[in-house]
Design goal:
The chain has about 120 residues and is mainly beta. Helix content is about 10%, strand content about 35%. The strands form 2 sheets. A 5-stranded mixed beta sheet has the order 3-2-1-10-4, with no helix packed on it. Strands 5, 6, 7, 8 and 9 form a 5-stranded mixed beta sheet that branches.
Amino acid sequence: VVGMNVNKSCQSAIWLKDSSRQNFEIFYVSTGSPKYNQTKSGNWSVTWRVNRWYESVQIPDGWMYWPMFFSYRGEALHGSEIDSMVHWYPASHGCVRMLHADIDKLWKAGFGVGDQVRVYGTWKG
């Protein structure tokens, strides 16, 4: 879909910027660990975003870098305390962790409220 397409199988996301299917970027992400809450599959849209560091209400001392919330469970696209927390495997508590530079790119481009977020795939690690 036009918007952010998060692939849990590959721990990657494709940001399709328009319907031409030729204007896109690919990002490394780390989705929800099976040990915690796996990131919920489905078609969502960003409902709100916070333009600062934000402490999770569900995970005490769980700091998110400029989060963009997209699901009813409070899942968000966000940066972590440090970029090295974006692993090649599912490691979050349910959100989609991204590198700070990638979150900055999305904010600068105006990605936000109303934009689509599609989460699909299954981790088979």
